[in-house]
């Protein structure tokens, strides 16, 4: 079964310096029908103005992933990490027993466009930790690039949950075939472009909740020359 969540149905907040779309209930946006999906709790698509950002604030017991589409995102946290995240990188922060961090756009001229993702952890009260990995964009081109999983390793962020996170840039008409294991579920979010997944058409910002499907056939649709890009969450 595939249930489509349209882009325009997401929550939206425009604070001037921050333009944010919420796939699930977040901050002042509340929708009891969309509180998350399985262990996936937050998908926020954020655009932050030059020189602006989120001041230092706390988190605990949450797996937090950031994925930049354009621009750059500066990170500073109470564990002593000071990093800058750009496109084709994945940042993972396990809040665990508690952490404070800030995220801001260090550019004086260019906005940053990124996704922040929260996944509920399998266990609570674990030590806080941080990882950041860069990958070659060819690794996601017309294939599923694993960027986070419970096992981690080899440039894959380690998350405290039975979940896998993939990114893919689809440039041609050849479908991507993805096998879901028994009793697995998926959330597919279209970062950009038009795709068809198991017969359901999705456009930029749309998403699909998937249950009771053995395989996913994901293909770019339309005649556009620009590639499509997706995030896929394989969830228990």
Automatic annotation (TrEMBL):
Protein name (Swiss-Prot/TrEMBL): Pirin family protein
Pfam families, A to Z: Pirin, Pirin_C_2
Gene3D superfamilies membership: Jelly Rolls
Cited InterPro entries: Pirin, Pirin_N_dom, Quercetinase_C, RmlC-like_jellyroll, RmlC_Cupin_sf
Family note: Belongs to the pirin family.
Pirin N-terminal domain mapped to chain residues: 5-119
Quercetin 2,3-dioxygenase C-terminal cupin domain boundaries: 146-235
